[in-house]
Design a protein that fits this description.
There is one protein chain. With 58 residues, this protein is α+β, with helices and mostly antiparallel strands. It has helices spanning 31-38, 50-57, and strands at 4-8, 21-25. The relative contact order is 0.20.
């Protein structure tokens, strides 16, 4: 079974299933915080908008 780390600017509004989910509240424009949140993860799924992704890739 996989354990998920859910990243959101408003993590306090989420209700995780504590048996399989952790929450991380951060700003997606904070590159160092994103790298730290992704470290050690087997899978990274992004639901960021296209605008945010394009800005991160520039």
């Amino acid at each position: 079974m996989y354990h998920l780390t859910l990243v959101s600017r408003h993590a306090n509004q989420l209700t995780p299933n504590t048996k399989r989910e952790n929450l991380a509240q951060l700003d997606v424009y904070d590159y160092d915080a994103l790298i730290k949140a992704m470290k050690g993860q087997d899978i990274v799924f992004s639901a960021l908008s296209r605008v945010i992704l394009m800005n991160l890739l520039d």
